[in-house]
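Changelog-adjacent note: as of this version, every example in the card shows the full chain rather than a window. The one below runs 212 residues end to end.
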Amino acid sequence: MTGRGAGAILDQLVARYPALDAAAESVNAAFTLLDSVLGAGRTVLVCGNGGSAADSEHIVGELAKPCALPRLLPPEVAAALRAAGDDGYLASSLRGGLPVLSLVSQSALLTAIANDQAADLAFAQQVIAYGRPGDLLWALSTSGTSASVLHALRTARALGLRTLGLTGPGGELTGLCDVLVRVPGDATPQIQELHLPVYHALCLAIEAERFS
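Full-length structure tokens:
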């Protein structure tokens, strides 16, 4: 169940974007999955290609640091920082973050995988390295046919990770995702335009649930 703040954020999504009405149930399911994984202290890995790579970075930027709420550090963390020699700067400046990691960011690693193994293994190899049972892979693919994304999802499921997909009307993500959010659209730009409000609402809802 969503908390009051989170529920209002998700309700406003469809009110602002009526085209997402058919996806409302899956968006709520995506929130429940993300909240369960993060609430258990597990890690979320995020991946996608091209514009979806940029969206992956955006998601991490909203969750690993404050987005709309102050996220003040718990008193015990502030006290531990002071005990470690902090003069008050860290305790007053740092904010709560969630363990959400982008798989699209490490250029040296990505090019090494592409050169030494295969380009379509770029995300799957990182899932092998970073993923642990109970973690979550959040995969974005407007087409739903990106080989690198599909390989990563299969690897994640094999290792016991939960899986969340964000895609368009078609593709092969069905059966690979515990929760799959499909948005309407006839072309990549249209799908990406609707991906942004979906993941932005999910990030805001998670922040409200975890930090309000």
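Structural remarks: The first strand starts at residue 44 and ends at 47.
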